[in-house]
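To make the argument concrete, we let one protein speak, a sequence paired with a row of structure tokens, as a model reads it:
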Amino acid sequence: MASTTFHFAKRSVLTLALAGLATCTLLAPTAALAVAPAQVKTQVPGFYRMAVGDFEVTALYDGYIELDTALLKNATPKEIQTLLARSFVNKKGIQTAVNAYLINTGSNLVLVDTGAAKCFGPTLGGLPANLKAAGYEPSQVDTIVITHLHPDHACGLLDADGKLAYPNATVRPAKADADFWLDAAIAAKAPKEAQGFFKMARESVQPYIDAGKFKPFTSGETLVAGITPIATPGHTPGHTSYQVTSKDQTLLILGDLIHSYAVQFPRPAIAIGFDNDSSKAVPARKKIFDEAVSKQTYVAGAHLPFPGIGQLRSEGKGYGWVPVQYAPFGIGR
């Protein structure tokens, strides 16, 4: 009897001990989470990498601009608000990304556009830091091709001290764009609100001109093997898109053919107030978009939501946007 009582008592004590341990285990995480660490409140570095054949393309985030919806043309305010609401976009303004693209061909390191630096305020200018986070140095870039000389694409040519941000690079804009933005007579006749654009364009490229590193190209000229300029005038007189091709894969870098994915994909006839000549910009957009749909080509936009890369499909009288899926480099295409 005594032995039975002892074993019963032993089991009871063991059961109580295990129950207590389980209770402590369950309560421990709750106690540990009572005071969480401070929130980090920063985003990951702004770069995204993908393969185009043997080329490595890195999207680089410079920042964003808040655009007034009143800039969108060829549609009523109600139509624009309906399109924005359809994509859950802020109806008061359009948060427009500013993206650039770094292409490593294996022989050249080519940067397509340079971001805004500090020309447009504190929400921009992140490209140099993101380029370094992506594993490259500005001094390694040997060629810079410019879609057009608007400040959010060209101001980043200079560093904070006004010196060459890319000291070993040659800058290649289309001659038609350089001739327009660097012409003092044209600038003098421009509307007052556009004067600053001309001034910033001149200041951004002058150090490269002085260093003999500014070489505008003409139609049909080869810039870098595998990177072909495509004239898409309208947004500016010499606005240029770039076709990047390696093996059997192609990426079309659109520049400013589109500013609002929520509005201009479903309604490509809608223009923006920044267009120098919307009667040319709209047809140029439709032509490139139709080509991208028919060939199922990837496209990249300077003002599409980062990384700004994806594909288009026909959707009614417009286009549907299918953003690239995040994947390890070289996978998922």
About this structure: The longest helix spans residues 2-32. DSSP finds nine helices and 14 strands in the chain.
